[in-house]
Amino acid sequence: MSEKYPTWLTGHVKEWAQKHLSTVTLCSTTGNELLEVWYYGDLLTLNAEPQLYIVPSYFAPELVTARDPESVEEFVIFDGGRHGYDNMFCEEHEPAELKNRPIKRYEIPASKLVLELGYSVDYENEKEDFEPDEADTVELISGERMPWEQVKRDGIDYIALYYVNEEGNPVQILDAELA
Predict the structure, then answer these.
(1) Distance (Å, whole) CA 105 – CA 120
(2) What is the pLDDT of residue 7?
(3) Which superkingdom does the taxonomy of this entry point to (predicted)?
(4) Which of 13, 23, 48, 178 sits a CA distance of 20 to 30 A from 156?
(5) How many angstroms separate the CA atoms of 138 and 116, rounded?
(6) pLDDT mean for each 10 residues of the chain (179 residues)
């Protein structure tokens, strides 16, 4: 697979490009790329920037979804309690903590959404450290097993979410280190 992005986004990628980072434009399964952003977490001003960033709350990790206002389809963009290297291999979360995260709308119009994804973990070079079994699956911190090829796609170490504003400029609203 030349296009590299996490498996949870399958069916929701309109465009993929390998720039400095893997970059994807999101869409609903109907192909609509004007999406609403919904989130659980807190909003924080960073470096006196005018937009607010979605960050974990005191009680639970952030959860960011997209909703197609036409079809009302909703899908997860990023789950700060499940997605990425640290959540797969290092950080444990209580199931109750991840279960009750009511989302609310991020106050922007339906917009084009772009993700940047970091893949700097050298999985192939470190494969033996992950102790894959005879079926080539790896045990996650949760005790679940995941196929090796999926680990390499889902084990991102960075994610950033941008919406494209009315002037056509990308505005970052999520920035998370995951390893």
Answers:
(1) 32
(2) 97
(3) Bacteria
(4) 48
(5) 25
(6) 87 94 97 98 92 96 98 98 96 92 97 97 94 96 96 97 97 97
CA dist 123 and 169 (Å) reads 34
DSSP letters of 26-86? E--TT----BEEEEESEEEE-TT-SSEEEE--SSS--EEEEE-TTT--EEEEEETTTSSHH
173 within 8 A of 62, measured Cβ to Cβ: no
Element (H, E) at 107: none
Please give the structure tokens belonging to residue 151.
Answer: 């680990």
Instruction: Return the HEC string of 61-77.
Output: CCEEEEECCCCCCEEEE
